[in-house]
Amino acid sequence: MKPLLKTGIITLLTFATFILSTTNVNAQTKNETDKTYIKIEVDGLSCPFCAYGLEKKLKQAGSKDVLINLEEGEATMSVPIDQQPTEEELRKIVKDAGFTPKEITFSKTPFKIKQDEK
Amino acid sequence: MKNKVVFVLIAAFLGTLFLFSCRGEQEKKTEINSQWKFVKNIDLNNVNPIGIVAQENFLWLSDVDNNRIVKINLDGKIIESFDGFQRPMHIAIQKDKIFVPEYTSDTVKIIENGNISTLALKENTDAIAGIAVDENTVAVADFYNHRIILQQEDKVTILGKEGHNDGELYYPTDVAIKSDLIYVADAYNNRVQVFDLKGNYVRMIGWNENIKVATGLIVTDTQVIIADFEGNRVLIYDLNGNLLQIVSGKFNQPTDIEIVANKMYVVNYKGSLISVFYK
């Protein structure tokens, strides 16, 4: 009886772990697909006042995870799909922040970020 | 005979007075003209500073990348850290109060004895890049509005407007108050501009030295010192704007300067270090 109980508990725990991990993956996948990832290449991004100025303006546009890379001269961010700004709106935000926008890319998957070498 | 003695005494008195005044002038001249010499670098551990102020034997830094204010000793060791700031920029000190402008939230926080409070501003700003405090006068650099807001209790005075002419500003990043004058790091006009308390333009400093982004400044009793961010230099002027010295070859994107006891501390945004000079 005891070995049977032990086997039963192990089976249940394994099953529960599998279910939880699947749910988590599904949630993560769902979360990712609910977002649009945006990369903005910017001219003139040189100092921290510029970088964090652009960060401030892009956050005001609805993103919570703006990342500025001074070395690469680009900003990456994500927004919920239903709040996705148009390319024109983004270009205006970048110009208002004092920069010249270059290429703007929209993606359904996150961009690979190069680490800023400081 | 009596008249002669009086005359000699007066002449001796005037002569002594003259000699003393000459000596005072000489000392002032020596103090202005003596050169800053490099001493060492202080390594900072994962701190990317914008602003610096001194308090006794400690330095306070705004660590903008890590959204915190740190207090370090003169070896660079972090003694205290205050987290949760929103892109803190050029800070100021008055007695035990550290004034911290938050670039993202457009508020000024005050750290005093470990507690944090908020300074009420009477004018809306868009990205506060720097602050100066002198008794009841507060000046903030309003980066995106290209102006300085001068707050004296209930009175608000606006200094400058967007532009490139005398008295106009283009993305100001730092400000200092000295002897009833307001000194502004007019960053993207690559110069420092001086205003009086009424907002009148007084003079320009540094326009002739090809500065590439004047991000920070300090004003002492005799000198105006400017951080040239892209040029990797620090430029030293007298109060009238005459160039005294250019220091280069020691910096990696300098952003701010502090002076304590004949030592000049220059913070470098890149490379996590403070360059120390002695005069």
Describe the structure.
The complex is a heterodimer of chains A (118) and B (279). In chain A, strands 2-3-1-4 form a 4-stranded antiparallel beta sheet. With 118 residues, chain A is of the alpha+beta class. In chain A, 47% of the residues lie in helices and 23% in strands. Chain B is mainly beta and 279 residues long. The longest helix of chain B has 32 residues, at 2-33. The N and C termini of chain B lie far apart (53 Å). Residues 26-30 of chain B have low confidence and may be disordered. The chains are: A alpha+beta (118), B mainly beta (279). Chain A binds chain B through residues 46-49, 52-53, 55-56, 59, 97-98, 118, and chain B through 48, 50, 64-65, 87, 89, 103-104, 127, 129, 143-144, 171, 173, 187, 213, 215, 229-230, 253, 255, 269-272.
Structure keywords:
heterodimer; A: 118 residues; alpha+beta; 47% helix; elongated; B: 279 residues; 4-stranded antiparallel sheet; 24 strands
Could you give a short description of this structure?
The complex is a heterodimer of chains A (118) and B (279). Chain A is α+β, with helices and mostly antiparallel strands and 118 residues long.
Number of strands of chain B: 24
Q: What is the terminal-to-terminal distance of chain A? A: 63 Å
Cα-based radius of gyration of chain B, to the nearest Å: 21 Å
Order of helices and strands of chain B: HEEEEEEEEEEEEEEEEEEEEEEEE
Uncertain regions of chain A: pLDDT < 50 for 5+ in a row? Answer: 22-30
Rough outline of chain B: globular
Helix-and-strand structural type of chain B:
mainly beta
Q: How many DSSP H or I helices of chain B?
A: 1
Beta fraction of chain A: 15-25%
Global mean pLDDT of chain B: 92
Radius of gyration of chain A: 21 Å
**Run of helices and strands of chain A:** HEHEEHE
Helix-strand makeup class of chain A: alpha+beta
Q: Low-confidence segments of chain B, ≥5 residues, pLDDT <50?
A: 26-30
Taking the sheet with the most strands of chain A, its summary is:
4 strands, antiparallel
Overall morphology of chain A: elongated
Q: Greatest chain-chain interface?
A: A-B, 12 and 25 residues
Number of strands of chain A: 4
Percent strand of chain B equals over 45%
On the 0 to 100 scale, the average pLDDT of chain A is: 79
The strands making up the biggest β-sheet of chain B line up spatially as 1-24-23-22
